[in-house]
Amino acid sequence: MRPRSILHVDMDAFYASVEQRDNPELRGKPLVVGGGDNRGVVAAASYESRRFGIRSAMPIAEARRRCPDLLRVAPRMSHYQSVSRQIFDVFREFSPLVEGLSLDEAFLDVSGSLKLFGNSKDIGRAIKARILEKTELTASVGVAENNLVAKIASDMDKPNGLVVITADDCQEKLDPLPVSVIPGIGRETLKKLHRANIRSVRDLRLATRRDIEPIFGRFTSKTLDRAAGIDDRPVISSRGEKSISAEETYERDLSDSKVMQRELLRLTERTCRRLRKAGLQAGTVQVKIRRADFSTFTRQKILRPPGNATDQIHAISCELLTSWLAEHPGSRIRLLGVGAARLTRSSQGDLFADSDAASAPVDKTVDQIRDRFGIAAVGRASTLSRPDTE
């Protein structure tokens, strides 16, 4: 079989880099993109802030302790999505086989593009240049014969790197790396491996099944393959979104059920707007709840027929929250989220069905106004005030 040519393209500190590009005053300074000053978490950290040990998912308060001069900006997800579309347009200039992993990274199978654009390293170099030209942002690219090794390679020379790993030098380049570069090895698994004196990819590659089977169980064979750089997964360009959601962590815990319902409406509006823009309907409505003690719960309900009307999905999310509150009276809420799953393509429904279809024209009008004038141009009256103290 002819070897494949796979690229993994990963934007460098994407959200933070977009903010620094758009605001020259932020360039060269430690910066995070994330939620509120005290209760939020870091969504992205600039390379200047990473020197202080700041990383994504770290509480903002901890990040500020590590770097008192840290700058913070609120996320602008719709803007990042717009920039992401520009980047993915570049990917598709070079190959139709693009598998997006997130807004800022993707696998590309360029095996069929070599005659047009040169070897895979040349294509990686051209993609980096095209992204820089189009967005003024840098990307790191890993080039290999499979997804696994390409992904590892893209992280070896960040930022703005280009690393090629061939079949001939794969073992030489992977062996010295820490075993944590193998996907699927989390913090607890890493502790177990260290206790077994397995610290590098080489250690794992040379380990016996008897050594690691107690750690990986039925995934032992797959893990040994990964340590040897073996990965047969194809690049899948048709993978659609499995769920769409919106969530928020609050500066002050919520304790009033009316305030919670108001916040659910905000989150429902965001989720449903994304559904409608993608031409999707939800078959299941999900609510995520995190208490002040960080314990997290989810509740869900099937939606028949599937829909994307804001009022309909908000009613179900309120029903789910009310049911949960009855089981956990007096709870104070740190985070709320509203999600849509079991997604299907939108279709013309029965106009005479007993449903909330009457709200659809209102949703469509609101979407059109926001598309033209911005997200804050129009909103339901019940969402106009924010929770201050609870």
Architecture blueprint of SSEs:
Layout: E1 6-11, H1 14-22, E2 31-34, E3 42-45, H2 47-50, H3 60-66, E4 71-73, H4 77-94, E5 98-102, E6 105-109, H5 114-117, H6 120-135, E7 139-144, H7 147-154, E8 162-164, H8 170-174, H9 187-195, H10 201-206, H11 209-216, H12 220-227, E9 243-254, H13 257-278, E10 280-291, E11 296-307, H14 310-327, E12 333-341, E13 344-345, H15 360-373
Parallel strand pairs: 2-4, 7-8
Antiparallel strand pairs: 1-6, 1-7, 2-3, 5-6, 9-12, 10-11, 10-12, 10-13
Helix pairs in contact: 4-6, 11-12, 13-14
Could you walk me through the main structural features you see in this protein, from its secondary elements to its overall organization?
- This protein is 40% helix and 21% strand.
- Strand 5 (98-102) and strand 6 form a beta hairpin.
- It has three domains: 1-167, 2-Layer Sandwich (Alpha-Beta Plaits), CATH 3.30.70; 171-227, Orthogonal Bundle (DNA polymerase, domain 1), CATH 1.10.150; 243-383, Dna Ligase, domain 1 (2-Layer Sandwich).
- It is of the alpha+beta class and 390 residues long.
- The protein is built from 15 helices and 13 strands.
- It has a five-stranded mixed sheet with strand order 5-6-1-7-8. Strands 9, 10, 11, 12 and 13 form a five-stranded antiparallel sheet that branches. A three-stranded mixed sheet has the order 3-2-4.
